[in-house]
Structures are given as structure tokens and as C-alpha cells.
Specification:
about 80% helix, single chain, 4 helices
Amino acid sequence: MTPNLGQGACQALEDAVVLGNVMASGDGLAAYDRQRRPRTQMVARRARRIGVAGQWESPAAVHLRDAALRLLPSSSFTRSLAPVLDWAA
């Protein structure tokens, strides 16, 4: 997972909670994988997309990206990150 969302430690904590739950219930690592894989893949895809856009080098593309981000209301960022930030065991 790329570091563009700052989710490394958060994902590790989520992993620990889910692993503890499945081991306590006796479900094993296959259950852990089934529970964690969809979420971790979603977070990794989002981080990669943000990283790609953040590393554009074309001055025109960078200008357009930065101008668009300035025009967006801050609430749009919160809404777009809701699936990453909202998690319950």
C-alpha cells in the first residue's frame, strides 16, 4: 500500500483487531483474509490513485489539478474519504 492516505498504522491496528477476533472465535486465517482483503484492496486502490495524481509532472496538468482542488469544498474531501475513515470491527 502506498503511503498517500497515511493509513499504514491504521490498517495495522484494524488487522490486529480482526486477527484477534477470528483467532478467538477459532475461525482461522481464511476468515481473517475474507474479512480484510476487500477493505485493504479498496484502501490500496485509493492510495495509489491519489499518489498518481499527486506525482503528475506536466505543468498544465498540475495547474489544473491544483485549481480544481482549490475550488472543491472541504466537505467533498471528507465525503470521498468516508469509506477509508469509517471502520468498525
